Amino acid sequence: MRNPIYLADVLFSLGFAILFRSIIGVALVPVWWAGFLFVVLTEEETLVRTLGQCYLDYKQRVKGRILPGLPV
């Protein structure tokens, strides 16, 4: 996957929400995920413009953005 730190951050947030039994915290995890997905899409556009074919080849080899093997 191309963004392991974002996955770790989402799982960390989910873990804390569960640890403190926060229903609101658990409910906000998808919002946090969507925010990271927006950041990832913006970063990928910049990387394609900056690195060109090298980054496109990397994207082809490494399929997952945030989840391993999935295009999410």
Describe this structure in words.
The protein is mostly helical. It has one domain. The chain contains three helices and no strands. The chain has helices at residues 4-19, 23-51, 53-61. Helix 1 (4-19) runs antiparallel to helix 2 (23-51). The radius of gyration is 14 Å and the shape is elongated. It starts with a helix and ends in an 11-residue tail after the last helix.
Structural domain tally: 1
Number of helices: 3
Strand content: under 5%
Measured distance between first and last alpha carbons: 10 Å
Summarize the helix and strand pattern as letters. HHH
Low-confidence stretches: none
Shape: elongated
Number-wise, the strands total: 0
Specify the biggest β-sheet: none
Radius of gyration: 14 Å
Q: Overall mean pLDDT score? A: 93
**Which class do the helix and strand fractions yield?**
mainly alpha
Into which percent range does the helicity of residues fall? over 70%
Summarize the structure.
The protein has 72 residues and is mainly α.
In terms of topology, how is this protein built?
Layout: H1 4-19, H2 23-51, H3 53-61
Q: Top keywords for this entry?
A:
72 residues; mainly alpha; 75% helix
